[in-house]
Design a protein that fits this description.
The complex is a heterodimer of chains A (about 475) and B (about 180). Chain A is mostly helical. Helix content of chain A is about 70%, strand content about 0%. Chain A is built from 18 helices and no strands. In chain A, helix 9 packs antiparallel against helix 10, helix 11 packs across helix 12 and helix 12 runs antiparallel to helix 14. Chain B folds into 2 domains: about 100 residues; about 70 residues, no CATH class. Classes of the chains: A mainly alpha (about 475), B alpha+beta (about 180). Chains A and B meet through helix 2, helix 6, helix 8 and helix 16 of A and helix 1, strand 2, helix 2, helix 3 and helix 4 of B.
C-alpha cells in the first residue's frame, strides 16, 4: 500500500480541494466587495493612466516634435516601448499554448492570468506605433483596403506591413483563445449568481453553456487546435518584429540572429512580468493553494534558461561583428559597450545576463522576495535591451557629420508611465470581474480522489480510468 | 430533441436525469448505460472527464478538418491578395525585386492562414455545439446549476429507442446515483 501511494507525485493544487471549494475560492473573489488594497492599487494605476493620457493628448495635438528625436535617431522611446510590451505579452501565449502542448499541467492555474496579461500588453504596445504615426486618425492607411487613389496598395514587401498583420492576428487569436477558455467558467459564475445584472451578463457571455459531454469533446479539440495555432504564431510575431530591424541595413540591426534572439528575449521578459504579477495576486486574493511555490520555481527555471539564451545572443553578436571584418559592424558594438550609451549597455548586461544566474540556486527560487526583486530587475534589463539596440545603432551612423545623441523628453517618459498605468488598471479590473484561475481546468487536476485511486493503482496502473491523468503531474 | 407537446397542456418530458457524486461514478454509469444500449444520452460535468467520450461512443469531431480547410483558405487569400496587388493591379518595382517576390509575401500568407484557421475552429465549435443557445430543457433539471460547479449528471433522453419511464428509472437507480428525476421540457 505504501509503495502504491508513493507513485503519486506532489499535488499541483494544495489543500486537498474538492471542486466546489475551487468554485467558492475563485468565484468568491468576484462576489465579495473589493478590498481596500484593491481600491488603493486601482486608484494609483488609474492616476498614472490619466497622467499618461494627458501626455498623449498633448503630443497628439502638438505633434511628435515634443519627443527628443532628431534626424539621426528617428526611432527611440516609442519603438523601445512597443517591442518591450509585445515581448511581455509572449509569456502569456507560451504558458497557455506551448506548455499546454507539452502537457505541463502546472500551467492550468497560471494560464488565465497570463493570457489576460498578454492581451493587455498587446494593447499597451499598440499605442506606440499609433502615436508615432503623428496622425493616429489616419492609422488605417497601412491597411490594404480599396481606395480611390488610383490603384494604390501598401508595400507588401515591407516588414512594417508584416508587423500590422502579425500584431493584429496575434491580438485577435489571443483574445479568442482567452475567451474560449473563459466560457465554462462564465457558466459557473452564471449558475452561482442570483437573479440580476450579473446573471444576465454572464448568461449572454457564457453562450448558454451546459457542460454537456458532446460539447466538451469539441471544446477540448478546439482548445488544442488553438494552442497549436498560437504556438507558431507567437514565434512568428516576434520574428516579424525583429525583422523591422533585421531587414534594414543599419549596422547592429542587419543580422540573422535577430529572430531567435528576440523570441527568447520576449519569453524572458514575459515570464518576468508573470512572475511579478503572480506573487501579488497570490497574496492579495489568498490564492496560495493555487499559485504554489512549485509554479514560481518552474517559472524561475524558464527565466534562467531564456536569460542564458539572451546572454549567449549578446556574445554571438560580438563574435559576429568581430568575425565579419566589417568596420561599421565592429564600431557599433565597441560603441555600444564603451560609447556614450555604455551605461545603458551595462545595465542591460547586469540585469539580463548576470542577475538571472542567481536562479540556479534553490534558496533563491524559493524566496519570494528575492524572486520578486529579480523579476523587476529583469524587466528593467529587457527594456534597456531594446533601448540599446535601437538608439546605439542609430546615433552613430555611417556619416560622422550626422552623429547625434538622444535624450527622452518628459512627455515620452510620461507616456511610458501611462502604459504601465493602463496595464495595471486593466489587470486589476480583470481580477475583479473575471475568474483569475481557469476553474474548469483546475478541477481536472485536483488531488481529490487520489487516496481512493492510490488503493487501485496496483490493479489499474496500465489502464487509465476516469481522471487518471490528474495523477501524473509532471516534471517541472 | 422532441417537438413540444401540441395535443394537450401536460408538460413534455425531456428525459430522466441521474446525479452522481464524483466523475468516476459518472464514468462507470455512462459506460454501463452505453452497454445497455442507450444512445440518446448526454453526460454533464463541470470539467472534461477523460474517457467519457469513449464511454458514450461519441464519434470523432469534424472541427479539426474545418480548421485545416480554414487555414488553407486563409493562406491562399493572403497570398492571392499580395499577388494580385503586386503583380496585376499595381505592378511597381520596389528595391529591384521582381514583381512576384514571393518570399517577402510569406509572413502575411502565414498570418492570414493562422487567423482564418482560428476563426474556422471557433466558428465550427460553436456551430456544431449549437452555441450560443438561448434555451435548453436540461436547465430545468433539479440542482442542475451544480453541473458547472461540482455536479455530475447523466441524462437519458426520451427520444431514445429504449426509453421507458419506469424501466429506465430503475436502470439509472441501479448505477449508484444521488438522485434520479424527470426533466421537463
Amino acid at each position: 500500500m505504501a509503495e502504491a501511494s508513493s507513485n503519486l507525485r506532489t499535488p499541483l493544487i494544495l489543500g486537498d480541494k474538492k471542486p466546489i471549494e475551487v468554485s467558492d475560492d475563485i468565484c468568491g473573489i468576484l462576489e465579495r466587495k473589493p478590498t481596500q488594497l484593491w481600491w488603493a492599487a486601482f486608484g494609483v494605476s488609474l492616476f498614472v493612466l490619466i497622467v499618461g493620457a494627458i501626455a498623449t493628448a498633448y503630443q497628439v495635438s502638438t505633434g511628435i516634435g515634443t519627443w527628443g528625436l532628431n534626424k539621426s535617431v528617428g526611432w527611440a522611446f516609442d519603438i523601445t516601448n512597443f517591442v518591450f510590451w509585445i515581448g511581455i505579452g509572449h509569456a502569456g501565449t507560451l504558458i497557455s499554448a506551448i506548455l499546454f502542448l507539452f502537457r505541463q499541467r502546472w500551467r492550468t492555474s497560471v494560464n488565465r492570468a497570463a493570457e489576460a496579461m498578454t492581451i493587455i500588453a498587446v494593447l499597451c504596445a499598440a499605442i506606440f506605433p499609433l502615436i508615432h504615426m503623428g496622425r493616429p486618425w489616419l492609422a488605417f492607411w497601412p491597411l490594404p483596403y480599396p481606395n480611390f487613389r488610383g490603384p494604390l496598395w501598401v508595400n507588401f514587401r515591407s516588414p512594417l506591413v508584416w508587423d500590422i498583420f502579425a500584431i493584429s492576428t496575434y491580438f485577435i487569436i489571443s483574445s479568442v483563445f482567452w475567451y474560449v477558455g473563459l466560457i465554462p467558467d462564465l457558466a459557473t459564475i452564471r449558475d452561482r449568481a442570483k437573479e440580476g445584472i450579473r446573471k444576465k451578463i454572464m448568461g449572454i457571455l457564457s453562450l448558454g453553456w451546459d457542460g454537456s459531454y458532446r460539447t466538451w469533446v469539441r471544446y477540448e479539440t478546439v482548445y488544442l487546435l488553438l494552442a497549436g495555432l498560437a504556438t507558431p504564431l507567437v514565434v512568428s510575431v516576434h520574428t516579424i518584429v525583429s525583422m523591422d530591424f533585421a531587414t534594414s541595413i543599419i549596422p547592429g540591426w542587419h543580422t540573422t540572429i535577430f529572430p531567435p534572439y528576440f523570441v527568447a528575449g520576449a519569453v524572458f521578459s514575459g515570464f518576468a512580468m508573470v512572475l511579478l504579477l503572480i506573487p501579488i495576486a497570490r497574496k492579495v486574493m489568498n490564492l496560495e493553494d493555487y499559485f504554489t511555490m512549485r509554479h514560481i520555481d518552474a517559472m524561475c527555471k524558464i527565466i534562467l534558461l531564456t536569460g542564458s539564451i539572451v546572454g549567449l545572443a549578446y556574445l554571438t553578436e560580438f563574435f559576429t561583428a568581430a568575425y565579419s571584418g566589417s568596420v561599421y559592424e565592429q564600431f557599433v558594438f565597441m560603441n555600444r559597450a564603451f560609447g556614450p550609451y555604455a551605461w545603458a549597455y551595462w545595465i542591460m548586461v547586469s540585469c539580463n545576463v548576470i542577475s538571472p544566474q542567481l536562479m540556479w540556486f534553490k534558496r533563491v527560487r524559493s524566496n519570494l522576495y528575492i524572486v520578486f526583486a529579480l523579476t523587476i530587475v529583469v524587466n528593467i534589463g529587457m527594456w534597456f535591451e531594446r533601448f540599446v539596440i535601437i538608439v546605439t545603432s542609430l546615433h552613430r551612423d555611417y556619416l560622422p557629420s550626422s552623429w547625434a545623441d538622444y535624450t527622452p523628453t518628459i512627455i515620452e517618459l510620461l507616456t511610458l508611465a501611462g502604459t504601465f498605468g493602463l496595464f495595471f488598471t486593466l489587470f486589476l479590473l480583470f481580477c475583479r470581474f473575471l475568474p483569475v484561475i481557469a476553474m474548469g481546468e483546475v478541477k481536472g487536476i485536483l488531488s481529490y480522489g487520489r487516496s481512493k485511486r492510490a488503493r487501485n493503482v496496483s490493479k489499474t496502473c496500465d489502464e487509465p480510468v476516469g481522471m487518471t491523468p490528474a495523477l501524473e503531474g509532471e516534471e517541472a | 430533441m422532441s417537438a413540444h407537446g401540441h395535443e394537450n397542456d401536460t408538460p413534455q418530458v425531456h428525459g430522466l436525469i441521474a446525479e452522481f457524486d464524483d466523475p468516476d461514478t459518472l464514468l462507470t454509469a455512462t459506460t454501463k448505460a452505453h452497454e445497455a444500449g442507450y444512445r440518446a444520452m448526454d453526460a454533464y460535468a463541470p470539467f472534461p472527464v477523460h474517457g467519457l467520450a469513449e464511454a458514450m461512443g461519441v464519434r470523432k469531431t469534424y472541427v479539426s478538418l474545418v480548421t485545416l480547410i480554414g487555414g488553407f483558405t486563409g493562406a491562399l487569400t493572403g497570398f492571392g491578395m499580395q499577388y494580385f496587388a503586386s503583380v496585376m493591379h499595381y505592378p511597381y518595382s520596389i528595391g529591384g525585386k521582381q514583381l512576384n517576390s514571393w518570399p517577402a509575401f510569406m509572413p502575411i500568407t502565414f498570418e492570414l492562414g493562422i487567423l482564418f484557421a482560428a476563426f474556422a475552429a471557433l466558428g465550427s465549435m460553436l456551430l456544431f455545439n449549437g452555441l450560443p443557445q438561448h434555451y435548453h430543457p436540461i436547465f430545468n433539471a433539479k440542482r442542475f446549476e451544480r453541473a458547472s460547479s461540482d455536479g455530475f449528471f447523466l441524462c437519458i433522453e426520451r427520444t431514445d429507442a429504449q426509453y421507458d419511464t419506469a424501466q429506465t428509472k430503475v436502470f439509472l437507480e441501479g448505477l449508484g446515483p444521488v438522485e434520479v428525476s424527470e426533466v421537463i421540457e
